[in-house]
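Entry:
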Amino acid sequence: MVGTSSGGVDALRELAAGLPAGFDAAILVVLHIGANPSMLPQMLARAGPLPAHHARNGEAVLPGVIYVAPPDHHLMIDGERTVLRRGPKENFARPAIDPLFRSAAVTRRSRVVGAILTGQLDDGTAGLQAVHQCGGITIVQDPDSAYAPDMPRNALSAVSPDFVLPLAAIAPQLAQLAGTTAHPAPEPPPSLLLEYAMSVGPTSVEAVKQIALPSALTCPECGGTLWEMRGVVPPRFRCHTGHTFGLSTLRDACKNALEHTLYDALRALHEQNELYTRIAAYYMQTGDVDVARQYTDAAGRAAASAKRIEGWLRES
């Protein structure tokens, strides 16, 4: 399995070009493409010797084939078959990396190799942790060789991977690992099993209560309460409708929400200043100087508040 985001198209093409024709394993790929049309399978098939296509729900996973998450669907795996779900976004992404890695960790245990490549923020960190917990092999692209180093760096902060490699070395390593005998796998943690069940089926407040504690934060996707996962390092959050967030993604969402709110306030203050200035001019024309002065003062307060907000926006 391979997960990537910013800079991922070029990284995946290089990876596909480095895989041998007799590659003895399936490759499942998630690239953050949202609901946008994607020609990624055709690009990967042209780049290397292996066939590639968008995964179809319920198809058998065969060695020597690249399965790409289709637009606006999470790609998961249930043992030997693919699963497609248009479930809640995770880390603001659908398809997201964590659902694939989590499902493979639970259903295939130590027969999994998970690789995190270039990308922003921290999707894939929790998924790579799941692969590690279930006995799979973990690979992280060397952040110094990544177009966007956030995802590799966040993965490295949470997992001590089996391999940290420059991009050019990952395909040869995958080829070496393909077809090797899996070692005995530990049982998945109960919390991971429950998260997997919620990703392929309905979720509920009662289910989330079993693995998380309510926080004072709200979900930036739906506005519901965010719950902090128990005993998870780095911290991770989810709401009872299924949206999930790593720490970096949630920080970015909060910063964007604050900026949006500040710009709304700035617009309202500019409009208030303009309106009060015009009202003051009207009363000045009618000779009501006292009322004109009141509106002039109010316009000045609005302008001063706008300048303070402009300063905060420049500093953020």
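The chain has a mean pLDDT of 95.
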